[in-house]
Amino acid sequence: MVASSVSPVLSIEALRARLGATMASARRRVLDLLKPHRLNQRFQSDLLVQLMHHQPSTRRVPVAQIDAFVRMKRPPHNNVCLFAVLSTGRTADVSWLRSVRNLYGRHDEEAEATRRVIAAFRNEIHTSSPKMRDARAAFSVGPCADCGKRRKLAIDHAGTPFAQILDGFLISSRADWAAFVDAGSGGAADAVPPPPFVPSSCMGSIALRWYNGAHILADRILARLWCDWHEARAELVGLCKPCNSSKGSGGYRYSFSRGGHTGGGGANDTEVVAGEEGRAGVGRRSGRGAAEAARPTIMKAARKRTRPELKGSGAAATSRKRGRN
């Protein structure tokens, strides 16, 4: 029996009532729904089918063909994502998080296009960077570079964050484009330049192609120069999941972003690098989010610093209290 035929399509108000009053509550509701299901185990959910009616128009899976859902790992990063099992026999990855954003009026196609392009730049590094390959071999499990605890590690940029490295590359490419136009035949803006110039400050204008389950850059010369740029500037370390999540990009914001996308590479930042579970709140944070995540650690360190001063000084502490009184 096709899952989408279980019940009629709910109105936006009715579906929001089932998911929650806010987008955050809806994310928690969907995550709670997904967690009990093991990897590669098919399941049916009328609530997810109802949510699929609100997929953004740029990326839609035909709801009438959905038979079931399954959580599977998606290459190249093997993140756990949600797939729809279609009546045609094939599976298609679906973004429940995008659908939630769209349902609550928060979907921004320009921002989504920017996330896809940022993800493509990350994917190029993941597959082509010798530094990244060496880091994955060296930092699989071991002491975290931040807290020192021995855990499973994720690769992160130390010193200059990924966002700043990418921003510098794009600014340099746009400067090369401006120089080409000025030196071109009469400064014609429609002259065709040799690759790998990035002609626009709009990230969504950078051409991508789908390869092995992920977006990569369509211009392979641009991809090679980007990898060389990153290789010369990146310093990679291994961080445990809590430290990696709290670090973010140190508050760095891309210069090309409308309103300022933060440089974090996880939550709400990429479509390919992080799976649905990661993008819904387990990924990186930056700015205020990173500060809030780090606050308990800072408070704990402050308590440790004050304890030695008070230890064994009960009489002195009592006398100080009496003095204040």
How would you sum up this structure, described in words?
There is one protein chain. The chain folds into two domains: 3-103, Nuclear Transport Factor 2, Chain: A; 109-287, no CATH class. Helices cover 46% and strands 14% of the residues. The chain has helices at 12-19, 23-34, 46-52, 96-103, 109-128, 130-138, 162-183, 220-233, 241-247, 276-282, 288-310, 314-324; strands spanning 66-74, 79-86, 91-93, 141-143, 150-158, 208-211, 214-217, 235-240. Strands 1-2-3 form a three-stranded antiparallel sheet, covered by helices on one side. Strands 4-5-8 form a three-stranded antiparallel sheet. A two-stranded antiparallel sheet has the order 6-7. Helix 2 runs antiparallel to helix 4. The longest helix has 23 residues, at 288-310. It is globular and about 55 Å long. 31% of the residues are buried.
